[in-house]
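YM 10:42: Signal recognition particle receptor FtsY sequence, as discussed on the call
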Amino acid sequence: MSGASWSERLFGGLKRTSERLGENLAGLTGKARLDDDDLDRIEEALITADLGPAMAARIRERLAARRDAVAGGTEELRKIVADEIAAVLRPVAEPLEVDAFPRPQVILVIGVNGSGKTTTIAKLAHLFQEQDYGVMLVAGDTFRAAAIGQLKVWAERLGVPIMAGPEGGDAAGIVFDAVKQATATGIDVLIVDTAGRLQNKRELMDELAKIKRVLGRLNPAAPHDVVLVLDATTGQNALSQIDVFREVAGVTGLVMTKLDGTARGGVLVAAAERHGLPIHAIGIGETIDDLRPFDADEIAGIIAGNIR
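YM 10:58: structure's back
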């Protein structure tokens, strides 16, 4: 699908999320009113698509108030579903803005190993470069040599400076040096990779707290953003990760990756409904351009089965 547009690829990824709902809506053709069994089936389809029970109940309630909408065919029902989803998503669609003064804006990027964290950092750096900001990367995940190596490769490809230390080095010390260098060289955005070990919550919490203390000594406003990267293919597990990382790291916003490879894209809606955290961007592939600011209406339409 390399020649496909962003919307087509996103639709392809979320297709299975919308298909179950579509099948249920299509089965209602010819009815004059929705009955309780119809509403039950639609609600179940929404839960199966990982939109979560609260969101499914909310949409069911809206449809129950418009039982005669079925007479307008599946398009009318899809529109009601899309409107309800969009109403939840619009308030959380917030791109990452660079507005810190003094510079640099410090963005801590957190998430479990395998969530696409390191690649997302590179994609965010690329988005900022396109806006003419000076970017620097920090290899703060010192527990994995592979993570340090991967980030160095990305920095070279992007042509941006990187601050890295040895495997097992002191992450807070590396971040401290990075902020000093970024300040001295006029860097706008400092993006910090962090360890993603959730097996030992206390250890991770201590390390992140230490990084935040060090940052606070240099600039009381830093870190300006704590961005959690979530893998959409993990479905409801992504929601429990938000719970843990909010407690551990004080998450300020989300990036959802791998939306092109999942039947569970509805988790994006469940996260918005349950947590209300800003969703800065979504990712649908491995290339450097495969991360875009989050468009609430586009996602709502696709989940409801409408191609824009």
